[in-house]
Design goal:
The complex is a heterotrimer of chains A (309), B (335) and C (247). Chain A has a single domain, classed as ABC transporter involved in vitamin B12 uptake, BtuC (Orthogonal Bundle). Helix content of chain A is 73%, strand content 3%. Chain A contains 12 helices and 2 strands. The C terminus of chain A is likely disordered. Chain B has 335 residues and is mainly alpha-helical. Chain B has a domain of 216 residues. Chain B has a two-stranded antiparallel ribbon. The model of chain B has no long low-confidence stretch (mean pLDDT 90). Chains in contact: A-B, B-C.
Chain lengths: 309, 335, 247
């Protein structure tokens, strides 16, 4: 019983991590569904979100003169909340720019789309290095959600609970958006059959632009939440795109529930690995990806997809 | 029927021009404001890129983790010099052997696939190798890597050549380059070359004609890894060290960008051009700005978007248009 | 013993049964046809016969050997070749390169990395002969991707022929062809009939009835009738259906 109790914080961490992975994967999945593009830059946009947030929370006040002084004086919670809203929007705009660049590759060999998003990932990572340097940065979080508390003789991280709760809320909002709004219905239709959507008079290129922007916004949001957990370095993005892909392979492209369940599974794997062999926790994702793709590439919930060309 | 017989069947005019330029390089490189060691680096990456393009440009398989095999080659060379015996031939043999073994093992997982699954698996394996090179520090020296790798003399039995100077090392690397170029050129025009080109265009039909597509993909990946290993071994000789960074995704991305910008998708010489352009950009652009890699990456994106056939492809297009208009001029005016 | 036999083939995709109790046999030297309405299962049947799908039940025999479930490449090497309805060529290759790939002399040396293909006169001659047969010799060095549709169809068959098969499966070879091209194709098939055992799936009844020695009709995933063209014309079911009117 003791053993299970000692494992509990790791399990909670794992579930929280998994829900955040699911959030990343949902954005990734929408892009795959509507545009049949595998966005290899998804991870670097995840990282960019965190860097933008860091800048919004604690900018260099001297850049903005007296306005800057006033802003930095605002409560940390307020600045953090602004960052949670503004940073993803900024990343969404970058995403739309990327989608615009991708347009030329749509009819051609999918290899070029892959190469382009790969190039974008490298460019964005390099941009981060240029602006913020290669070293480790810190994302300041408000005191209210940081720190730890003791319960049942174990130390629990407050932030992890916040992260898990936030992820649940965000996933629920995405679900509401997709299932209960007309825009969501259009996106789902677009993922299912883009020709039909065009025939219905919906501007397909605007839909694609929006979906790409929305998809990377989710990644950026996850990036902001995960920065205190994974750290903030330019190449942290690589470790974000792998679970996204792993999740849609496990859960199937086009399956919302599948993505969430698979996300939690992946998160638990990472969480449990970090309990016993913490150095291997990220590696466990890569190894899991290799195992899953080798043995089963159709997913638990979804059907044959564009991935299998 | 093919009129190329004798020596012309092995060596072409572009090859001779390239060889001539490269053989003379040590004599003019300083006068253009560059330096000897750069020549060594360029030739090493030309070898790496040529082997890589066998996979990307000719078979259509995108590997984003090829730095792993370059790295295995570098470490294998280093370890053989430090623990076995000091010999260039043995060292490079180990480089190619272990890189091939690594490639063969990974290829067993990859060869069923193409496209995105293939690409992601190569990334995953690349990360695994990179992780191992950092964690297995008893073997690899961890994050610092292997240091003080000796650069032995080149033994030919009765006499030996010192490779201490960068110029000597350059000529040795160039000799390796020449062998790789001639060998790969021949391979591209052989039945094997035709099959891999077919696999790039239409895997299914190639299988229906009777070819074991899996085996071809496995073998071309292994061969490509082995050439990457050779380049890695030469690198380890040049740097006299080997370290994990060459296996990172970041480093693996360089060879992808090089090959594409150079025109590897449509031309044998694409990788050679691409490697030269990369290093020129690094040293010349890099002297002007610290953000040169950013511009290089943007250039890569622009090439993918607007001219995926790259520099070599643009040159081919130019030659074609020039020949077409010359033909048009030659036609008699009917009247 | 028939050259090629399908016994009790049963194929299901998920819950949907697509082929049920398919029994077919093709005799050496004959041209057999398979026809039937769209969605009737004839394409699936074809794909099972040529190794693209594995049947859930039943056997496929070639020259007495059980080839059920073997990979397409193994089946190809045993002497069975097929063309595709949706064209499946190597668009970046020249016409002659397309065919050269399939020539046994090249195929058997696929792992040779040093011999020059262009200098292999025996292989080139064989490829040229195939092109001559399908009427593409003049276009040998043109790019396959830029050929007009009718020539692509001819090349499609040429590639299948180049492997020197004993049994040739043609999947809707007249697909998309105009009447002139169809007539030329019929002439070609007539010539090929003298050398190969052929099985054709077709929609164009006039084409099929003019060439086939016997035809199987597949509908609702089953072989509902089989016979010579004359017998089928007299068949009440065929007469009452659309198929009869076209023949």
């Amino acid at each position: 019983m003791d053993f299970l109790l000692n494992l509990a914080p790791h399990l909670i961490n794992g579930i929280g991590l998994g829900l955040l992975f699911a959030l990343i994967a949902l954005g990734f999945m929408l892009i795959v569904g509507v545009m049949e593009v595998i966005n290899l830059a998804h991870g670097s946009l995840f990282a960019l979100g965190a860097y933008f947030a860091m800048m919004i929370i604690g900018p260099e006040p001297q850049w903005f003169g007296s306005m800057g002084e006033w802003y930095v004086g605002l409560p940390a919670g307020l600045r953090y909340s602004i960052a949670l809203v503004l940073a993803p929007i900024l990343v969404g705009l970058v995403g739309m720019l990327l989608e615009y660049c991708l347009r030329g590759t749509y009819g051609k060999d999918p290899l070029f789309g892959l190469l382009l998003t790969f190039g974008a990932a490298m460019v964005i990572e390099e941009l981060i290095r240029v602006f913020w340097g290669s070293g480790e940065q810190v994302l300041q979080i408000p005191a209210a959600i940081s720190g730890a508390f003791i319960w049942n003789g174990l130390i629990w991280s407050s932030y992890r609970f916040f992260a898990a709760a936030f992820a649940i809320a965000a996933i629920f909002m995405v679900w509401l958006f997709l299932e209960r709004t007309p825009y969501g219905a259009i996106i789902k239709a677009g993922a299912h059959d883009s020709e039909m959507v065009r025939a219905l008079g919906i501007n397909l290129s605007r839909l694609r632009l929006f979906v790409f922007g929305f998809g990377v916004m989710l990644a950026a949001l996850a990036g902001i939440i995960m920065a205190p957990i994974w750290g903030l370095r330019p190449h942290v993005g690589v470790d974000a795109v792998i679970p996204a892909f792993l999740i849609i392979v496990l859960g199937g492209v086009g399956s919302f529930g599948g993505a969430v369940v698979a996300g939690v599974l992946v998160g638990l794997t990472v969480g449990i690995t970090s309990a016993y062999a913490s150095e291997w926790s990220l590696m466990s994702m890569y190894l899991l990806l290799i195992v899953v793709i080798t043995f089963r590439a159709r997913g638990l919930f979804g059907k044959k997809s564009v991935l299998e060309n | 029927m093919d009129a190329n017989t004798g020596i012309k069947a092995w060596i072409t005019r572009p090859m001779l021009i390239t060889f001539a330029v490269l053989v003379s390089l040590p004599f003019w490189i300083d006068s253009v404001g560059l330096y000897q060691y750069l020549g060594v680096e360029i030739v090493i990456w030309m070898v790496f890129a040529l082997g890589y393009n066998l996979l990307l440009g000719y078979t259509g398989l995108p590997s984003f983790g090829h730095g792993a095999y370059f790295g295995i080659g570098a470490y294998a060379f280093g370890l053989s010099q430090l623990h076995l015996t000091q010999s260039v031939w043995l060292g490079l043999f180990c480089s190619m052997l272990f890189a091939a073994l690594g490639g063969a093992a990974v290829a067993a997982f990859l060869s069923h696939r193409r496209g995105i699954y293939f690409a992601l698996l190569t990334i995953a394996f690349g990360q695994v190798f990179w992780f191992l090179s950092i964690k297995w520090h008893t073997l690899t020296g961890g994050e610092d890597g292997l240091l003080n790798i000796p650069r032995p003399d080149l033994e030919f039995g009765v006499f030996s050549v010192s490779l201490d100077s960068n110029q000597a090392l350059y000529y040795f690397a160039l000799a390796m380059f020449v062998i790789v170029v001639i060998g790969l050129w021949r391979l591209i025009h052989s039945p094997y070359g035709t099959v891999i080109k077919a696999i790039k265009q239409n895997e299914m039909r190639t299988g229906f004609i009777g070819y074991n597509v899996w085996l071809y993909k496995w073998s071309v990946f292994t061969l490509s890894a082995s050439i990457a290993g050779l380049a890695g071994g030469l690198f380890s000789m040049a740097q006299e060290s080997a370290y994990p960074d060459v296996m990172s995704l970041h480093a693996s991305g360089f060879v992808v960008m090089m090959v594409l910008i150079g025109g590897g998708m449509v031309s044998f010489w694409g990788p050679v051009i691409g490697a030269a352009v990369y290093f020129l950009a690094r040293d010349m652009l890099g002297a002007a700005t610290e953000t040169w890699l950013l511009w290089y990456g943007l250039m890569f994106m622009a090439v993918v978007m607007f001219k995926p056939e790259g520099i070599a492809g643009a040159w081919q297009g130019f030659v074609r248009r020039r020949d077409a208009s010359a033909d048009a001029e030659k036609k008699p005016v009917t009247g | 013993m028939a050259l090629f036999e399908a016994q009790q083939l049963h194929k299901r995709f998920g819950d949907r049964v697509v082929l049920e109790e398919i029994n077919l046999s093709f005799e050496v030297g004959q041209l057999s046809g398979i026809m039937g309405p769209n969605g009737a299962g004839k394409t699936t049947c074809f794909n099972v016969l040529t190794g693209r799908y594995k049947p859930n039940r039943g056997k496929v025999l070639f020259d007495g050997e059980d080839i059920t479930g073997m990979a397409p490449r193994t089946i190809a090497r045993k002497g069975i070749s097929r063309s595709f309805q949706i064209m499946n060529l190597f668009d970046d290759f020249t016409v002659i390169e397309n065919v050269l790939l399939a020539v046994p002399r090249i195929r058997d040396r696929g792992f040779n990395m040093t011999r020059r293909v262009a200098a292999d006169s025996a292989a080139m001659d064989k490829a040229a002969a195939v092109l001559e047969q399908v009427g593409l010799k003049a276009r040998a060095y043109e790019n396959a991707g830029s050929l007009p549709y009718g020539d692509r169809r001819a090349l499609e068959i040429g590639v299948a022929l180049a492997t020197e098969p004993r049994l040739l499966f043609l999947d809707e070879p007249t697909s998309g062809l105009g009447s002139d091209a169809t007539a030329r194709l019929a002439e070609l098939v007539l010539e090929l009939k003298q050398r190969y055992t052929i099985v054709i799936i077709e929609h164009d009844m006039k084409f099929l009835f003019g060439l086939a020695d016997n035809i199987a009709v597949i509908h609702w995933g089953q072989v509902i009738t089989r016979g010579t063209p004359d017998e089928l014309r007299a068949n009440k079911w065929v007469q009452s259906s659309n198929l009869g009117k076209l023949a």
